[in-house]
Write a structure and sequence with these properties.
The protein has 639 residues and is of the alpha/beta class. Helix content is 40%, strand content 13%. The chain contains 17 helices and 15 strands. The protein has a seven-stranded mixed beta sheet, with helices on both faces.
Length: 639
C-alpha cells in the first residue's frame, strides 16, 4: 500500500545497491550503509553515508556520477582523513558565534575541497565524477549568487562567491563587490581561503575558518538562510581516535593499569598435571602459557616487559574460551516452545535473519477457512472462464519442465540382458535382465504462488485470482505440488519494534493435488500493507525444504512494497530477497495481472526488483503465451 508522500520518487534499486557496494568497498567495512538525505554527510555513529537529493531530476549519467562523488568524499575522505574530534571542538566554539551556520558550512566546504584533492590523487578514476560535481555546483551557485545579490542577502551571496572563487578555472575570477564593508575585507579573506589547498588536516581547515569568521562577525549582520553544506551536530567528543578508520580499529582498554610485580624469570616450578592461569590476583607467577583475554587484568607490553621465556616443544596453541553453563531445573523437554513462537521472539527482539529492514517483523501463519457456498460457486464460474487457457498452460509446462526419473532396475525376468551371465550356472532361477533409467510421468518441480494482499491490489485482485486459479488447476492436472499463500502486514498493530506479517495459506503442498481444492482461493482479498522482501524470504525457506529439483516462486504483486519503516528501502530489500532466492536455485518470477495497460513507472519498479523475469499481462488469455518463453529460458539456464 502507498500512502501520501511529499517526495513521491522511485528509487533506482540497482544504482542504490551499486552505491552501497561502492561505500563498503572503499571503507572496507561491510557494516557501512547508504541512505538518501537533503545534504550529503557521514554519520560515524550509525555508520551510514548519506548521499544528497540535490542530484535528483538531472540527466541519468550526471546523477550517477554526482552521487558517486558523494560516496567518494564520505567513504575515502571523511572516513579516513577527517578528524571528528576536532569537528566536535569546532561545533562547541560555533555555539557562541553570530554567524554559526556560515562558519559550519564554510568549514565543510573547505574540508570537502581538501578531501576532494586527496581522492583525486589516490583514486584517479574519481576525476570524472568530481568534475561533474563541480560543474553542477558552479551552475547552481552562479544562479544563487544573482538571486542573493538582488535580495541583498549578503551572507549567502558571499558564501556563493567563495565557492565560485575557490573552484574557478581562471585566476582572474574573484569575489565580486557586495558591499563597501565586505569589499574592504576581501583581500584578507581570499588570502586565507587559498591556504586550503596547502593544509593537511581538519584542524588547519578549522583554524582558517575561525580566522575568517572572526573578521566577518564585525561586518555581517545576519547569518545564512540557505544550507548548502551540512555539518551534523553529533557527539564527536566521544570518538577517541583522530579518524573514523582508526576508531573502528581501536580496542577497548583494560579497566586497571596495574603491573605484575614478580614477573616470571624462567626458573620457577613447572606444574606437571595442572595448568593454572594468571591474572591480577595471582600471587605466585609460574611458567603457565594458557592465557585468557580479559577486560580486567595486569597491564603488560607485547614483549612481556622483558620477561619472556623461550618457547618449548610441549607448548600448545593459545585459545579463547567463552560460554556459560548451569544446572537445569528439570530434564523434561516435552513442553518446549513451538518453532513458530521461537521465531516470533527472535523477530520481536530485533533479529535480522530475514533482512535488516525486517528485524522487527513477526510472522503470523493462518490457515484457510472452510469455503462457503458462494466461494464454491464463484470458483466454479471462474474455473470455467479459464478452462480454454488451461490446456495451453498445461502443454507448456509438460514441454518445458523436467520430469522425474525412475532408478535403474535389475534382476528382472524381462528387459535388457545383463552382461553378468555367471548366474546361469550359480543360480537355480537366474534373473538376468534389467531396465534402464526412464522418465517418470511425474514432473520434478514444485511451485509456490505468493500473492500480495495489500490495499494497492484492490483493482488487480480479481484479475490476479483468475491467474492463480489458472495456475492451480493446471498444476493440479499435471500433478505438480504447489502452495498458494497471501501475505500482508497489519498496519493497526504495527509498532516500531513489532510488525505482524500475516501469511494466509489457502492451498498447502499437502492439499494442492486434491480434486476438491481450489475454492479457498476466493478468500484472498486486499488487506493493508505489504513487506515483500520478508515474505519472499519466508517462502524461500519453505521451498528449500522440498526435494524437487526445480523450484519456482511466482509472486503476484504490483511491485510497490510499503510497510512500517519500509517505504524507502522496500524495493532494495525485495530485490535482495529475490537475489538470495535465486542463489539457492529457486527461480523467482513476478506476475503482474492488471485490468488495463501497465504504466511505465510501475513497469520500471518491477523490473528493478525482478530483472527480466517479469510477466506483464493485460488480459488473462495472454498469460500462457507470455509465460512460455520465460519458463523455457529458465529451463535452459538450469540445464
Amino acid at each position: 500500500m502507498r500512502f501520501i508522500k511529499f517526495n513521491d520518487q522511485q528509487v533506482d534499486s540497482f544504482l542504490f545497491m551499486a552505491l552501497s557496494d561502492l561505500a563498503k568497498g572503499l571503507t572496507k567495512n561491510p557494516d557501512i550503509e547508504v541512505d538518501y538525505s537533503v545534504q550529503s554527510y557521514l554519520d560515524p555513529f550509525e555508520k551510514k553515508v548519506y548521499v544528497s537529493h540535490f542530484w535528483d531530476h538531472r540527466e541519468k549519467e550526471e546523477t550517477e556520477l554526482a552521487l558517486k562523488s558523494d560516496i567518494y568524499l564520505r567513504s575515502i575522505g571523511n572516513y579516513y582523513y577527517t578528524d571528528f574530534k576536532e569537528l566536535g571542538v569546532f561545533i562547541e566554539k560555533t555555539q557562541k558565534l553570530k554567524l554559526k551556520s556560515f562558519a559550519k558550512q564554510l568549514c565543510m566546504l573547505l574540508e570537502d575541497l581538501r578531501l576532494e584533492e586527496k581522492c583525486r590523487r589516490e583514486r584517479r578514476g574519481t576525476k570524472k565524477a568530481f568534475n561533474i560535481r563541480r560543474e553542477l555546483y558552479r551552475k547552481h551557485f552562479q544562479s544563487q549568487l544573482i538571486i542573493h545579490q538582488e535580495r541583498s542577502m549578503l551572507t549567502d551571496a558571499l558564501f556563493n562567491s567563495i565557492y565560485l572563487t575557490l573552484t574557478a578555472q581562471s585566476t582572474i575570477e574573484s569575489i565580486p563587490s557586495l558591499s563597501e564593508s565586505i569589499d574592504r575585507s576581501i583581500p584578507y579573506i581570499e588570502s586565507k581561503l587559498f591556504q586550503v589547498f596547502e593544509v593537511a588536516s581538519t584542524k588547519q581547515v578549522i583554524d582558517i575558518v575561525l580566522e575568517i569568521v572572526d573578521v566577518l562577525e564585525e561586518i555581517l549582520e545576519k547569518d545564512m538562510l540557505n544550507t548548502y553544506f551540512y555539518l551534523a551536530e553529533l557527539p564527536y567528543n566521544t570518538i577517541l581516535s583522530s579518524s573514523l578508520y582508526d576508531e573502528l580499529k581501536r580496542k577497548s582498554k583494560l579497566k586497571n593499569k596495574d603491573a605484575l610485580e614478580n614477573a616470571k624469570q624462567g626458573d620457577e616450578d613447572v606444574h606437571g598435571d595442572k595448568l593454572p592461569t594468571w591474572h591480577s590476583e595471582t600471587s605466585k607467577p609460574t611458567k603457565s602459557f594458557l592465557q585468557f583475554d580479559l577486560e580486567q587484568g595486569t597491564n603488560t607490553t607485547i614483549n612481556g616487559d622483558g620477561a619472556v621465556r623461550e618457547g618449548e616443544d610441549g607448548d600448545q596453541a593459545l585459545a579463547m574460551v567463552q560460554g556459560t553453563s548451569k544446572k537445569a531445573k528439570r530434564n523434561d523437554y516435552s513442553k518446549m516452545k513451538a518453532l513458530e513462537n521461537q521465531k516470533e521472539d527472535r523477530a520481536s527482539s530485533g533479529d535480522a535473519s530475514y533482512g535488516k529492514e525486517n528485524k522487527y517483523a513477526v510472522p503470523v501463519f493462518q490457515e484457510a477457512k472452510t469455503p462457503t457456498i458462494s466461494d464454491i460457486e464463484q470458483y466454479q464460474k471462474d474455473r470455467m472462464d479459464i478452462q480454454v487457457y488451461q490446456n495451453k498452460l498445461k502443454l507448456m509446462i509438460q514441454k518445458t519442465l523436467e520430469h522425474k526419473r525412475t532408478m535403474p532396475r535389475s534382476d528382472l525376468q524381462i528387459g535388457r540382458l545383463n552382461k553378468k551371465l555367471l548366474r546361469i550356472i550359480t543360480d537355480d532361477n537366474p534373473k538376468l535382465f534389467y531396465k534402464k533409467q526412464e522418465k517418470s510421468p511425474d514432473i520434478d518441480a514444485v511451485f509456490t504462488l505468493l500473492v500480495d494482499c495489500s490495499a494497492s491490489m484492490f483493482d488487480k485482485m480479481d484479475q490476479s485470482k483468475l491467474g492463480i486459479i489458472l495456475f492451480h488447476e493446471t498444476l493440479k492436472s499435471v500433478r505438480v505440488p504447489h502452495k498458494i499463500v497471501g501475505f500482508w502486514e497489519d498496519t493497526n498493530e504495527s509498532t516500531k519494534t513489532r510488525q505482524p506479517n500475516h501469511f494466509y495459506e489457502v492451498i498447502s503442498f499437502e492439499t494442492s493435488l486434491n480434486q476438491q481444492s481450489g475454492p479457498e482461493i476466493m478468500q484472498l482479498s486486499p488487506e493493508e500493507d505489504n513487506r515483500d522482501g520478508y515474505a519472499i524470504r519466508h517462502m524461500t525457506e519453505q521451498l528449500m525444504k522440498k526435494n524437487e529439483k526445480q523450484k519456482f516462486l511466482l509472486v503476484f504483486s504490483d511491485g510497490e512494497p510499503a510497510a512500517t519503516g519500509y517505504e524507502r528501502n522496500g524495493i532494495i530489500d525485495t530485490h535482495e530477497a529475490v537475489l538470495e532466492a535465486r542463489k539457492m536455485g529457486i527461480e523467482v518470477i513476478n506476475v503482474f495481472l492488471s485490468n488495463g495497460k501497465v504504466n511505465e513507472a510501475t513497469q520500471k519498479t518491477i523490473q528493478n526488483i525482478y530483472g527480466k523475469y517479469s510477466v506483464f499481462v493485460d488480459k488473462i488469455e495472454e498469460l500462457p503465451e507470455q509465460l512460455y518463453p520465460l519458463l523455457k529460458r529458465l529451463l535452459l539456464k538450469m540445464l
